[in-house]
Amino acid sequence: AQTVTQSQPEMSVQEAETVTLSCTYDTSESDYYLFWYKQPPSRQMILVIRQEAYKQQNATENRFSVNFQKAAKSFSLKISDSQLGDAAMYFCAYRRGVETSGSRLTFGEGTQLTVNP
Amino acid sequence: KAGVTQTPRYLIKTRGQQVTLSCSPISGHRSVSWYQQTPGQGLQFLFEYFSETQRNKGNFPGRFSGRQFSNSRSEMNVSTLELGDSALYLCASTPGPSQGNTEAFFGQGTRLTVV
Protein backbone atom coordinates (compact mmCIF):
# COMPACT_ATOMS: atom_id res chain seq x y z
CA ALA A 1 0.00 0.00 0.00
CA GLN A 2 1.10 3.51 -0.68
CA THR A 3 1.62 6.00 2.12
CA VAL A 4 2.19 9.75 2.12
CA THR A 5 3.77 11.58 5.03
CA GLN A 6 3.88 15.29 5.77
CA SER A 7 6.05 15.83 8.82
CA GLN A 8 5.25 19.52 9.32
CA PRO A 9 1.78 19.99 10.85
CA GLU A 10 2.21 23.77 10.81
CA MET A 11 4.43 26.25 9.02
CA SER A 12 4.53 30.01 8.93
CA VAL A 13 6.13 32.50 6.55
CA GLN A 14 6.39 36.24 6.21
CA GLU A 15 4.62 37.83 3.30
CA ALA A 16 6.91 38.02 0.22
CA GLU A 17 9.25 35.38 1.66
CA THR A 18 9.78 31.80 0.48
CA VAL A 19 8.62 28.68 2.27
CA THR A 20 9.10 24.97 1.57
CA LEU A 21 6.64 22.28 2.59
CA SER A 22 7.90 18.71 2.87
CA CYS A 23 6.35 15.46 1.71
CA THR A 24 7.66 11.92 1.54
CA TYR A 25 5.90 8.90 0.14
CA ASP A 26 6.33 5.20 -0.05
CA THR A 27 5.45 3.07 -3.06
CA SER A 28 6.79 0.06 -4.90
CA GLU A 29 5.47 1.30 -8.22
CA SER A 30 7.39 3.19 -10.87
CA ASP A 31 4.47 4.87 -12.58
CA TYR A 32 2.53 7.37 -10.49
CA TYR A 33 1.50 10.98 -10.07
CA LEU A 34 2.09 13.35 -7.18
CA PHE A 35 0.03 16.39 -6.36
CA TRP A 36 -0.13 19.32 -3.99
CA TYR A 37 -3.62 20.46 -3.12
CA LYS A 38 -4.56 23.60 -1.21
CA GLN A 39 -7.58 23.74 1.08
CA PRO A 40 -8.49 27.26 2.25
CA PRO A 41 -11.07 27.90 4.98
CA SER A 42 -13.83 27.50 2.38
CA ARG A 43 -12.84 23.78 2.37
CA GLN A 44 -12.68 23.64 -1.44
CA MET A 45 -9.71 21.49 -2.48
CA ILE A 46 -7.74 23.25 -5.19
CA LEU A 47 -4.96 21.69 -7.22
CA VAL A 48 -1.74 23.65 -6.88
CA ILE A 49 0.69 21.56 -8.90
CA ARG A 50 1.20 18.04 -10.19
CA GLN A 51 4.21 15.92 -11.11
CA GLU A 52 4.40 12.82 -13.27
CA ALA A 53 6.91 10.33 -11.88
CA TYR A 54 8.38 9.60 -15.31
CA LYS A 55 9.32 13.26 -15.80
CA GLN A 56 12.68 14.22 -14.38
CA GLN A 57 12.01 17.92 -14.71
CA ASN A 58 10.45 19.53 -11.66
CA ALA A 59 7.01 21.01 -12.22
CA THR A 60 6.48 24.75 -11.89
CA GLU A 61 3.31 26.84 -11.76
CA ASN A 62 4.00 30.55 -11.37
CA ARG A 63 5.18 31.05 -7.75
CA PHE A 64 4.84 27.35 -6.95
CA SER A 65 7.49 24.78 -7.74
CA VAL A 66 8.38 21.31 -6.57
CA ASN A 67 11.58 19.48 -5.78
CA PHE A 68 10.90 15.91 -6.89
CA GLN A 69 13.52 13.41 -5.74
CA LYS A 70 12.30 10.05 -7.04
CA ALA A 71 15.03 7.90 -5.53
CA ALA A 72 14.53 9.50 -2.12
CA LYS A 73 10.72 9.44 -2.56
CA SER A 74 10.53 13.07 -1.65
CA PHE A 75 8.22 15.72 -3.10
CA SER A 76 8.52 19.17 -1.54
CA LEU A 77 6.58 22.30 -2.48
CA LYS A 78 8.27 25.69 -2.64
CA ILE A 79 6.13 28.81 -2.51
CA SER A 80 7.97 31.94 -3.56
CA ASP A 81 6.91 35.53 -2.84
CA SER A 82 4.29 34.29 -0.38
CA GLN A 83 0.97 36.11 -0.38
CA LEU A 84 -1.74 36.37 2.26
CA GLY A 85 -4.01 34.35 -0.01
CA ASP A 86 -1.60 31.42 0.18
CA ALA A 87 -2.65 30.78 3.77
CA ALA A 88 -4.36 27.39 3.78
CA MET A 89 -3.97 23.71 4.58
CA TYR A 90 -1.73 22.04 2.01
CA PHE A 91 -2.03 18.35 1.21
CA CYS A 92 0.42 16.18 -0.64
CA ALA A 93 -1.29 13.38 -2.59
CA TYR A 94 -0.32 10.27 -4.53
CA ARG A 95 -2.10 8.51 -7.34
CA ARG A 96 -1.14 5.33 -9.13
CA GLY A 97 -0.27 5.80 -12.77
CA VAL A 98 -2.00 2.77 -14.21
CA GLU A 99 -5.25 3.95 -15.76
CA THR A 100 -7.09 0.80 -14.84
CA SER A 101 -6.31 1.32 -11.16
CA GLY A 102 -8.70 4.23 -10.94
CA SER A 103 -8.46 7.78 -9.66
CA ARG A 104 -7.93 7.03 -5.98
CA LEU A 105 -5.79 9.62 -4.18
CA THR A 106 -3.80 8.89 -1.04
CA PHE A 107 -3.31 12.03 1.01
CA GLY A 108 -0.77 13.11 3.59
CA GLU A 109 -1.81 14.55 6.94
CA GLY A 110 -1.60 18.13 5.73
CA THR A 111 0.46 21.20 6.63
CA GLN A 112 -1.29 24.33 7.87
CA LEU A 113 0.45 27.33 6.35
CA THR A 114 0.15 30.75 7.98
CA VAL A 115 1.29 33.85 6.10
CA ASN A 116 2.19 36.79 8.33
CA PRO A 117 1.85 40.34 6.99
CA LYS B 1 -18.11 24.77 -17.38
CA ALA B 2 -19.82 24.18 -14.06
CA GLY B 3 -17.73 22.67 -11.29
CA VAL B 4 -18.45 19.73 -9.05
CA THR B 5 -21.67 20.26 -7.15
CA GLN B 6 -22.37 18.63 -3.81
CA THR B 7 -25.68 18.80 -2.01
CA PRO B 8 -26.58 19.53 0.64
CA ARG B 9 -23.76 21.71 1.98
CA TYR B 10 -24.68 21.14 5.61
CA LEU B 11 -26.60 18.40 7.34
CA ILE B 12 -27.46 17.57 10.93
CA LYS B 13 -28.67 14.06 11.70
CA THR B 14 -29.40 12.01 14.80
CA ARG B 15 -27.57 8.82 15.71
CA GLY B 16 -29.21 5.80 14.13
CA GLN B 17 -30.63 7.70 11.18
CA GLN B 18 -29.45 7.34 7.63
CA VAL B 19 -28.30 10.02 5.22
CA THR B 20 -27.83 10.40 1.47
CA LEU B 21 -25.35 12.83 -0.05
CA SER B 22 -25.29 13.81 -3.70
CA CYS B 23 -22.52 14.74 -6.11
CA SER B 24 -22.82 16.01 -9.66
CA PRO B 25 -19.46 15.82 -11.47
CA ILE B 26 -18.15 18.16 -14.12
CA SER B 27 -19.94 17.67 -17.41
CA GLY B 28 -18.20 14.92 -19.38
CA HIS B 29 -16.46 13.44 -16.35
CA ARG B 30 -17.38 9.82 -15.77
CA SER B 31 -15.46 9.01 -12.60
CA VAL B 32 -16.58 10.11 -9.14
CA SER B 33 -14.68 9.48 -5.92
CA TRP B 34 -15.75 10.12 -2.34
CA TYR B 35 -13.54 11.06 0.61
CA GLN B 36 -14.18 11.53 4.30
CA GLN B 37 -12.26 14.29 6.07
CA THR B 38 -12.01 14.42 9.86
CA PRO B 39 -9.55 16.19 12.18
CA GLY B 40 -8.37 12.89 13.61
CA GLN B 41 -8.13 10.67 10.53
CA GLY B 42 -7.47 13.25 7.84
CA LEU B 43 -8.61 12.55 4.29
CA GLN B 44 -9.67 8.98 3.71
CA PHE B 45 -10.86 7.41 0.48
CA LEU B 46 -14.34 5.90 0.61
CA PHE B 47 -15.01 4.62 -2.91
CA GLU B 48 -14.88 5.42 -6.60
CA TYR B 49 -17.49 4.92 -9.27
CA PHE B 50 -16.99 4.79 -13.01
CA SER B 51 -19.69 4.02 -15.55
CA GLU B 52 -22.13 3.10 -12.78
CA THR B 53 -19.72 0.51 -11.34
CA GLN B 54 -17.72 0.68 -8.15
CA ARG B 55 -14.09 0.58 -9.22
CA ASN B 56 -12.30 1.05 -5.90
CA LYS B 57 -13.31 0.81 -2.29
CA GLY B 58 -11.63 2.09 0.84
CA ASN B 59 -11.58 0.55 4.27
CA PHE B 60 -14.96 1.59 5.61
CA PRO B 61 -17.76 -0.51 7.10
CA GLY B 62 -20.69 -1.67 5.03
CA ARG B 63 -22.83 1.12 6.45
CA PHE B 64 -21.18 3.31 3.83
CA SER B 65 -22.43 2.67 0.33
CA GLY B 66 -22.71 4.50 -2.93
CA ARG B 67 -24.00 4.37 -6.43
CA GLN B 68 -23.66 6.16 -9.72
CA PHE B 69 -26.34 6.94 -12.23
CA SER B 70 -26.18 6.89 -16.02
CA ASN B 71 -25.62 10.66 -16.09
CA SER B 72 -22.54 10.14 -13.85
CA ARG B 73 -24.16 11.77 -10.83
CA SER B 74 -23.32 9.87 -7.67
CA GLU B 75 -24.85 9.42 -4.27
CA MET B 76 -23.40 8.04 -1.10
CA ASN B 77 -25.46 6.67 1.72
CA VAL B 78 -24.58 6.15 5.35
CA SER B 79 -26.94 4.02 7.38
CA THR B 80 -27.25 3.75 11.15
CA LEU B 81 -25.28 6.93 11.73
CA GLU B 82 -22.74 7.07 14.54
CA LEU B 83 -21.24 10.13 16.21
CA GLY B 84 -17.92 9.27 14.56
CA ASP B 85 -19.44 9.73 11.12
CA SER B 86 -19.46 13.48 11.67
CA ALA B 87 -17.13 14.75 8.98
CA LEU B 88 -16.70 16.73 5.81
CA TYR B 89 -17.53 14.49 2.85
CA LEU B 90 -15.76 15.49 -0.34
CA CYS B 91 -16.56 14.39 -3.85
CA ALA B 92 -14.03 14.49 -6.68
CA SER B 93 -14.56 14.02 -10.40
CA THR B 94 -12.12 12.99 -13.08
CA PRO B 95 -12.65 12.32 -16.76
CA GLY B 96 -12.01 8.59 -16.45
CA PRO B 97 -9.61 6.09 -18.01
CA SER B 98 -7.80 6.97 -21.19
CA GLN B 99 -8.95 10.57 -21.03
CA GLY B 100 -5.44 11.89 -20.59
CA ASN B 101 -6.15 14.08 -17.61
CA THR B 102 -5.33 12.89 -14.13
CA GLU B 103 -6.44 15.98 -12.25
CA ALA B 104 -9.24 15.48 -9.76
CA PHE B 105 -11.66 18.36 -9.29
CA PHE B 106 -13.31 18.62 -5.91
CA GLY B 107 -16.67 19.87 -4.77
CA GLN B 108 -17.10 22.11 -1.74
CA GLY B 109 -18.13 19.19 0.40
CA THR B 110 -21.04 18.28 2.63
CA ARG B 111 -20.55 18.94 6.32
CA LEU B 112 -22.35 16.17 8.20
CA THR B 113 -22.93 16.52 11.93
CA VAL B 114 -24.33 13.56 13.85
CA VAL B 115 -25.86 14.38 17.24
Provide structural commentary.
The complex is a heterodimer of chains A (117) and B (115). Chain A is mostly beta strands and 117 residues long. Helix content of chain A is 0%, strand content 51%. Chain A contains no helices and twelve strands. In chain A, the strands form three sheets. In chain A, strands 2, 5, 6, 10, 11 and 12 form a six-stranded mixed sheet that branches. Chain A starts with a strand and ends with a strand. The mean pLDDT of chain A is 94. The termini of chain B are far apart. With 115 residues, chain B is an all-beta fold. In chain B, 0% of the residues lie in helices and 52% in strands. The mean pLDDT of chain B is 93. In chain B, strands 2, 4, 5, 6, 9, 10 and 11 form a seven-stranded mixed sheet that branches. Chain B has a four-stranded antiparallel sheet with strand order 1-3-8-7, with no helix packed on it. In chain B, a hairpin with a 5-residue loop joins β7 (64-68) and β8. The chains are: A mainly beta (117), B mainly beta (115). At the A-B interface, β5, β6 and β11 of A face β4, β5, β9 and β10 of B.
